[in-house]
């Protein structure tokens, strides 16, 4: 009897499996559900599997599964498919739309925005009416998000003489054109009737900057942007000079006096 119990115990422990599943922390809440209803469904499907999520404060992506080997594997595949669906449906696009047109996009009693949401199968968030933000956020599958964006932009285009131009500016100049906290580019946008200037995502390697707004303001912003880029380009020439480390302190001078003098006198 003792031998049989030991054999069963050994078999059970050999069949026991602990698996660390990597799931981005941003999806944990969604998988668990607002009141835990979604994780309950998964646990009901795989009652022999213990599913442990990390404490949110840990900032960990590791979800631990423990139970019979076959059940753990099945549960892993099921959850991986769920995460793949979440990733596919979590693509997000920011669409800047002039504030005065938000009411037209919403429509009477929300009819327009409801129709776009349903037909594109996307989540569309508009900024609060009293907010200064003009950005509309669209979330869902990539193709659906792009379709919803096209519809929203076409509403704006129909309501105003909106133009869009692409300007090629070397990617290495983008940060200096944007300025600290976006101040430099914001001043151009405000001066040119509130046009929108969109730089590509940092690190994408793209040189294309998009300017959108009323035609005359877009042209004005384009001229200012190209003029500023030309200035930055002129000032971004680089020369490397070799100097032994032991001489650096003499080049810098006491309290940085010498190097500051060179900077000030040469610009």
TrEMBL record:
Keyword RNA-binding: yes
CDD domains assigned to the protein according to its UniProt record, in alphabetical order: KH-I_Vigilin_rpt7, KH-I_Vigilin_rpt8, KH-I_Vigilin_rpt9
InterPro entries cross-referenced by the UniProt entry: KH_dom (IPR004087), KH_dom_type_1 (IPR004088), KH_dom_type_1_sf (IPR036612)
Recorded GO MF terms: RNA binding
Listed SMART domains: KH
Keyword set includes Cytoplasm: no
Source organism per UniProt: Pan troglodytes
Key words of the record: Repeat, RNA-binding
Stretches assigned to the K Homology domain: 15-84, 89-157, 161-230
GO CC list: cytoplasm
Protein name: Vigilin
């Amino acid at each position: 009897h003792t031998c049989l119990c030991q054999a069963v115990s050994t078999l059970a422990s050999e069949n026991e499996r602990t698996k660390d599943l990597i799931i981005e922390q941003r999806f944990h809440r969604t998988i668990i559900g607002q009141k835990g209803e979604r994780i309950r469904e998964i646990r009901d499907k795989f009652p022999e599997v213990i599913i442990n999520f990390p404490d949110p404060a840990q900032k960990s992506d590791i979800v631990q599964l423990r139970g019979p080997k076959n059940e753990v594997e099945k549960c892993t595949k099921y959850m991986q498919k769920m995460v793949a669906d979440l990733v596919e449906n979590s693509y997000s696009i920011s669409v800047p739309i002039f504030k005065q047109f938000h009411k037209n996009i919403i429509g009477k009693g929300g009819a327009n925005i409801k129709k776009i949401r349903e037909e594109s199968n996307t989540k569309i968030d508009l900024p609060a009416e009293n907010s200064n933000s003009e950005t509309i956020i669209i979330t869902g599958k990539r193709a659906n998000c792009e379709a919803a964006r096209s519809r929203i932009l076409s509403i704006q285009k129909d309501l105003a003489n909106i133009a869009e131009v692409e300007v090629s500016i070397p990617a290495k100049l983008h940060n200096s054109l944007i300025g600290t906290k976006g101040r430099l580019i914001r001043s151009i946008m405000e001066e040119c009737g509130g046009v929108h200037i969109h730089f590509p995502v940092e690190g994408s390697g793209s040189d294309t900057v998009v300017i959108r707004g009323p035609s005359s303001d877009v042209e004005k912003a384009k001229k200012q942007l190209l003029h500023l880029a030309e200035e930055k380009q002129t000032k971004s020439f680089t020369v490397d000079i070799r100097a032994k480390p032991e001489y650096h302190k003499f080049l810098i001078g006491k309290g940085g006096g010498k190097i500051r003098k060179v900077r000030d006198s040469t610009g």
